[in-house]
Amino acid sequence: MPNDKIPGGPKTIGVIMDGNRRWAKEQSLPTMEGHKVGLKKIKDLTKWAKDLGVSTIYLYAFSTENWNREKEEVNYLMKLFLQAFREDSKELVKQKVRVKFAGQTERFFPILRQSIKALERMTKNFSGLTLVFCLSYGGRAEIVAAIKKIAKQKTAQEIETLTEDDFSRFLWTNGLPNPELVIRTSGEVRTSNFLPWQTAYSEWFFSKTYWPAFTKEELKQILEDFSKREIRRGR
Q1: How far apart are CA 62 and CA 72, in angstroms?
Q2: What's the pLDDT tens digit per position in 31-69?
């Protein structure tokens, strides 16, 4: 494996994988083909990230708002996820990637939920790289869910002394590091409800490249750009 690790590069990144549909349109391909190619790109990303010294990746794969898309497209995405987590996941296991999920996974049909749990269980002891799929994820929904948990488990007195660290333990990402850098592909310049609590002090990079066309060279350039930034985090 090449040693491309970048001094001062981020250990934890988030990726908003945007542009699948527009990429497919420009290639004169069906929309669904864009999603298929985009999902396959994740395998490449895990290899690139490990080469470049990244240890945790958050992937914004399906948002709570994505449920509002056309039923045909949503059903196709569910089938793609099922295939990825049951069959294509063999490559992730081979790479010893630990896979985690964050989001309203209870909204998925039973066989997909079972595949999600099985993949988490199968990879839980791996330590090479952690890949966090944000599925049926929305930052506001995550915070509301955390508040409901706190209300059930904490007394009024305990809530009075609740700290930010305490609150973080009730989030879907409990136990995982916060992203130092978030990359959004496709040229869109917005955060789209992605990890609002966790990215409070993250650096952002907005790429004009559609996700299916994203390359290791561009990722390397972005990580190198991060390494040159002055990170103050409010100091």
Answers
A1: 15
A2: 999 999 999 999 999 999 999 999 999 999 999 999 999
Give the chain's domain count: 1
In 3D space, the residue among 41, 20, 40 whose CA is nearest the CA of residue 32 turns out to be 20
Q: Which residue in 66, 88, 178, 225 is the catalytic one?
A: 66
Q: What's the pLDDT tens digit per position in 152-210? A: 999 999 999 999 999 999 999 999 999 999 999 999 999 999 999 999 999 999 999 99
In a domain, 88, yes or no: yes
Whole-model pTM above 0.90?
A: yes
CATH number, position 87: 3.40.1180.10
Q: Is 18 in the active site? A: yes
CA angle 138, 140, 144 (to 5 degrees): 115
**Separation of alpha carbons 45 and 42, rounded Å:** 5
Is 178 annotated as catalytic?
no
